[in-house]
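Researcher: Quick test of sequence recovery. Tokens follow.
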């Protein structure tokens, strides 16, 4: 109470006496001055926002299909890409040369895909790297997974894709293992042994990409390529059928009624569909690109480690199993936006440009995350963005 009494004695009472000695209009101006200052600041902020919008709109109109990042933002992006690439190389050396791996080849496969996308030499014979990947499986297994966990098809998808970018064909048993796990409707679950209703957006998108890239290798027989093409077609149909086409959003497990919506996997699906369309295996879905750009959030996450989880419990061979897969948000929001950009209207492109530039300038990316898989996915997204702006071969 003494504090308030002292405050009244030293500040409030003298201020009231001072105001009483002012004229009526002087008191009005004094009392309104803070509001006038706040209004002027708000107007200035609004003018700055409008000016930025006008400049970005002009850049979008002049750039065609290229994403017109400013020179300063391009430099920041390049610096981030180079920094994360250096750490990714260290991660790969730790995985391959030092055999310091505990994740059944998952992160190693992602690092291979991300570094190869940047045309970085891995410094080792692709045959030796492929043998290393296969050595990460439990003894006698065809797919990839940790020994005490159920067989994991997301893990397998990344490893099969890593083999493809190394120009190393997956074996017939490896490919048949994947294809036989596909549901009749075209979807795949995360874990082998799950029911059809538990099919996963993430697993289906990643396996479609992996089989599509394996399909392009000349070492496969015509019959096997045909089998892979048919599986990819079914997967694409499943992804499109199970989308919210008005918003270009997917759920973690679309056949489960109360499954949550996921921004991460939605960006992944758009990337997968563009991957298929680029090889003439899939159709171009510009309506989904429009819907994605119209439904973008107000801001992207700042950290590469921010992730979603489905929160689902699954029955796998009658054993309750919690879905522990983490779905990274920033990486796939960037990727979905980049691959959708060219199909957007001018207004949609301006919004996408603002979000991308804000994500880069206000970033807290560091070395791309605290774990190797976070860095690998971050590097993949940065590389795709740099390609779209013409800043990476």
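Model:
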């Amino acid at each position: 109470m003494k504090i308030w009494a002292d405050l009244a004695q030293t500040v409030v009472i003298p201020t009231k006496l001072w105001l009483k000695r002012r004229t009526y209009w002087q008191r009005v101006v004094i009392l309104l001055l803070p509001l006038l200052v706040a209004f002027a600041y708000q107007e200035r902020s609004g003018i700055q926002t409008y000016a930025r919008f006008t400049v970005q709109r002009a850049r979008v109109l002049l750039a065609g299909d290229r994403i017109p990042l400013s020179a300063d933002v391009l430099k920041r992006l390049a610096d981030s890409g180079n920094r994360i690439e250096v750490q990714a190389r260290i991660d790969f050396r730790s995985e391959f040369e030092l055999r310091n791996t505990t994740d059944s080849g998952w992160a190693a496969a992602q690092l291979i895909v991300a570094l190869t996308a940047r045309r970085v030499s891995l410094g080792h014979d692709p045959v030796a790297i492929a043998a290393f990947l296969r050595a990460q499986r439990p003894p006698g297994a065809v797919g990839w997974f940790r020994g005490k966990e159920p067989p994991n098809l997301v893990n397998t998808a990344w490893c099969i894709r890593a083999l493809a970018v190394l120009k190393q064909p997956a074996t017939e048993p490896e490919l048949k293992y994947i294809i036989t796990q596909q549901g009749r409707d075209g979807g795949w679950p995360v874990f082998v042994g799950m029911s059809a209703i538990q099919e996963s957006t993430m697993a289906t998108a990643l396996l479609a990409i992996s089989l599509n890239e394996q399909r392009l290798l000349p070492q496969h027989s015509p019959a096997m390529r045909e089998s892979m093409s048919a599986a990819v077609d079914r997967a694409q149909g499943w992804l499109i059928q199970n989308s919210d086409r008005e918003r270009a959003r997917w759920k973690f497990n679309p056949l489960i009624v109360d499954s949550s919506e996921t921004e991460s996997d939605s960006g992944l699906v758009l990337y997968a569909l563009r991957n298929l369309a680029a090889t003439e295996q899939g159709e171009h879905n510009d309506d989904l690109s429009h819907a994605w750009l119209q439904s973008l959030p107000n801001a992207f996450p700042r950290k590469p480690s921010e992730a979603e989880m489905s929160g689902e419990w699954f029955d796998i061979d009658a054993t309750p199993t919690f879905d522990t897969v983490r779905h990274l948000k920033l990486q796939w929001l960037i990727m979905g936006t980049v691959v959708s950009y060219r199909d957007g209207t001018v207004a949609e492109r301006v919004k996408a440009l603002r979000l991308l530039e804000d994500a880069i300038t206000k970033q807290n990316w560091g070395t791309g995350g605290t774990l190797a898989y976070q860095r690998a996915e971050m590097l993949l997204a940065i590389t795709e963005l740099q390609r779209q702006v013409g800043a990476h071969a």
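The mean pLDDT is 88.
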